[in-house]
Design a protein that fits this description.
Blueprint lengths: L1 E7 L3 H12 L4 E4 L23 H12 L5 E4 L3 E7 L2 E6 L4 E9 L3 E4 L6 H4 L4 E2 L2 H4 L8 E4 L4 H9 L6 E4 L8 H9 L3 E3 L3 E7 L2 E7 L4 E3 L2 E4 L2 E4 L3 H4 L23 E3 L11 H25 L1 H4 L2
Parallel strand pairs: 1-2, 1-6, 2-3, 6-17, 8-15, 9-10, 9-15, 10-11
Antiparallel strand pairs: 4-5, 5-6, 7-16, 12-13, 13-14
Helix pairs in contact: 1-2, 1-8
The structure holds flavin-adenine dinucleotide.
Length: 307
């Protein structure tokens, strides 16, 4: 069977794309190995009607909703390779199966490279986060830190200040702030610590203290980091799609990439706006883009128009 669309990645982007494709009667397979970056957290915020939901529960509901649409199947496994031959995409999965599809939606998300601070992963998703719009409310008015080794620290400090004025910026030994930036932050009462971090201290993911290598320490109850972002799967570049400066897949208002038949949605675009509701909307948009192409194909061909 030739699929109308293979959706790679079953986070909110891929799930919403599959929902719209299913409702459009398109033969679709959604491939997902369930390793999203938000697996570290048990609460997601800012999605209307779903504020505070466990992201795995949201996924379960979305998969359940897809069962209503018989033309959508879910393959709970990793895609190993995608190539194009004879006008069709060939998708190879980890168990050695092959699928053919007219179109592909890449919704594989990204992975974060956390700062090189010992045990930071123990706190990430519980008291340290990367998106103040997602988790700032829960940490409001508490003593927080921005832990960052890159120039995004300045912007993050200005944003987090919206939720707490008791803020420390810790650069872990890196000189990433200009003198002008430091002065501006200090005029707002934001403290700057440029010495190397020795350890994060706390229990069950709840940060309590940051210890520095010079022997000093500050009490902090949580904060934000500014990770680097890399593609979770590299199909975009393998298929020849143009990438933006952050390494995200470039796409237009219909989710179309620079390669015919390849669409992209969600975090894999790396636009800087990384949220469940945005990813879901982009998934819907890409599915509409696929539909538009399939409709055009049908009405262009005199043979199919006569059917
Ligand atoms: C700690 C943390 C807290 C967050 N909190 C919030 C919040 O409160 N509110 C909010 O709106 N957003 C939050 N986010 C951001 C949100 O999780 C992402 O923006 C959203 O999940 C992006 O959706 P996506 O579908 O693009 O990618 P993902 O959700 O990452 O899904 C991609 C899926 O593709 C799969 N995949 C990748 N490669 C392959 C392959 N080769 N084969 C098969 N499957 C593959 C992955 O396993 C994954 O299941 C948070 C993120 C983190 C890290």
């Amino acid at each position: 069977m030739i699929l109308d669309c293979a959706v790679i990645g079953g986070g909110p982007a891929g799930l919403n794309a599959s929902l719209v494709l299913g409702r459009s009667r398109r033969k679709t397979v959604l491939f997902d190995d369930n390793m999203p970056r938000n697996a570290v957290t048990s609460e997601s915020h800012g999605f209307m009607t779903r504020d505070g939901i466990d992201p795995q529960e949201m996924k379960r509901i979305a998969q359940e909703e897809l069962r209503k649409y018989p033309n959508v199947a879910i393959e709970k496994q990793r895609v190993k390779n995608i190539d194009k031959a004879g006008g069709l995409f060939r998708i190879e999965t980890e168990d050695g199966s092959f699928f053919s599809a007219k179109n592909v939606i890449l919704a594989t998300g990204f992975k974060e490279v956390l700062p090189e601070v010992k045990d930071v992963e123990q706190y990430y998703g519980t008291s340290l986060f990367s998106c103040p719009f997602c988790d700032g409310w829960e940490l409001k008015d508490r003593p927080l830190a921005v832990i960052s080794e890159n120039p995004k620290a300045f912007h993050m400090a200005k944003v987090v200040f919206n939720w707490t004025e008791d803020l420390a910026v810790c650069t872990n030994g890196k000189q990433i702030l200009s003198e002008a930036e430091k002065t501006l932050l200090e005029t707002k009462g934001i403290k700057i610590y440029e010495q190397e971090i020795h350890a994060l201290i706390g229990k069950n993911g709840q940060l309590e203290k940051i210890e520095f290598k010079d022997g000093s320490a500050i009490l902090r109850e949580g904060g934000f980091i500014t990770p680097e972002w890399v593609q979770a799967s590299t199909f975009g570049s393998l298929l020849g799609c143009k990438l933006n400066v952050q390494g995200g897949i470039e796409s237009d208002s219909m989710g179309r990439t620079t390669i015919d038949g390849v669409y992209a949605a969600g975090d894999t675009l790396i636009t800087g706006a990384s949220q469940l509701i945005i990813a879901a909307a982009e998934g819907s948009r890409a599915a509409i883009g696929v539909n538009a192409a399939l409709i055009e194909e049908k009405f262009k061909s005199p043979a199919s128009a006569l059917k």
